Amino acid sequence: MIEITGLTKQFDKKRALDGLDLHVKKGSIYGLIGVNGSGKTTALKAAVGILRPDEGEARMDGEPVYENGAVKARVGFIPDDLYFFGVYGLGECAAFYRRLYPSWNAERYAAMREKLGLPERGRVTRFSKGMQKQAAFLLAMSAMPDYLILDEPIDGLDPLVRKLVWKCIVDDVASRNMTVLVSSHNLREMEGICDSIGILDGGKMLIERDLDELKSDIHKVQAAFPAGTPDEGRYNGLNVLHRETRGTVELLIIRSPEETVREIIGAKNPLVFDMLPLSLEEIFIYELGGEHSALGNIIF
Predict the structure, then answer these.
(1) 127-183: per-residue pLDDT in tens?
(2) Which residues contact 206 (CB under 8 A, 6 or more apart)?
(3) Cβ-contact 282, 231 below 8 angstroms
(4) What sections of the chain are H helices per DSSP?
(5) What is the pLDDT of residues 261-293, one digit of tens each?
């Protein structure tokens, strides 16, 4: 389990994280999402012990991560801003990783390198951006980590490699109970891979839920009512995030249990009443933006 509690981190006068709480269940894939500048990368670097928190703590399996070599030897981390030693080829990088990680798997490294078609010779720093991402993924997965932390892991990868990356991750979660914390702007891909979602806003956790539970409590509703139906109090008892009128039909985004939505709107005898599924992208926009935000006013 990854647990971050009350974590605060400030750079100069800017507070990047403000009392952040985050919980990742063992053997799950957790997606961390938020707008640019919300603190995602800082949270990931704190989670793997790269940054010292000003307040609070990051722990894995109950052990503090910062300056804890035994814990870090079980963690694979792929940052968005990749770094490789300037003169190292892939084979030399692998030898370096082998000394760092007791669980290094040479057979997996050889098999994956061949499948990805990556050369062992030649400086990794001269690889294309996509090839560098593949190299980072190859090294991290060959270390057989118990915890895998990923910051924009598929950026720059072609569709075939992306599919291979996610398949390898899902297989390790299923077979080895590996725990994954991933940040990405590709919400469609996150929706298909994650068990839980955390939405960051201004360095704080806005909402943290299992994805299925999150989807079950936020709904897109279309409703139309007979002429003369009072508008005032029509949706009392519901948490309406967004409301707009399209002709005689109202479109609403409501964060309330489904049975409550059906009961309150159904009691008004609507002429039209449909509940439509929401994508993770839509949920993100309306949870973060709400009715009065520029994000919340985007039309789908």
Answers:
(1) 999 999 999 999 999 999 999 999 988 877 888 899 999 999 999 999 999 999 999
(2) 34, 199, 200, 287, 288
(3) no
(4) 40-47, 69-72, 90-100, 106-116, 129-142, 159-176, 187-193, 211-216, 258-266, 280-289
(5) 999 999 999 999 999 888 898 888 887 765 434
Contact 187, 180 (CB under 8 A): no
Report d(CA 281, CA 284) in Å as an integer.
Answer: 5
Residue 296 has pLDDT above 60, yes or no: no
d(CA 286, CA 36): 16
pTM for this model (two decimals): 0.87
Q: Please report the DSSP string for 156-220 in residue order.
A: T--HHHHHHHHHHHHHHHHHH--EEEEE-S-HHHHHHH-SEEEEEETTEEEEEEEHHHHHHTEEE
As given in the structure block, the two tokens for residue 131 are 């090839």
Q: How far apart are CA 288 and CA 191, in angstroms?
A: 17
- 3-class state of residue 57 by DSSP: strand
DSSP three-state, residue 124: helix
First to last CA, the chain: 37
Condensed to tens digits (0 to 9), the pLDDT of residues 191-206 reads 989 999 999 999 999 9
- List all residues 6 or more positions away from 80 whose beta carbon is below 8 Å from its beta carbon: 41, 151, 152, 155
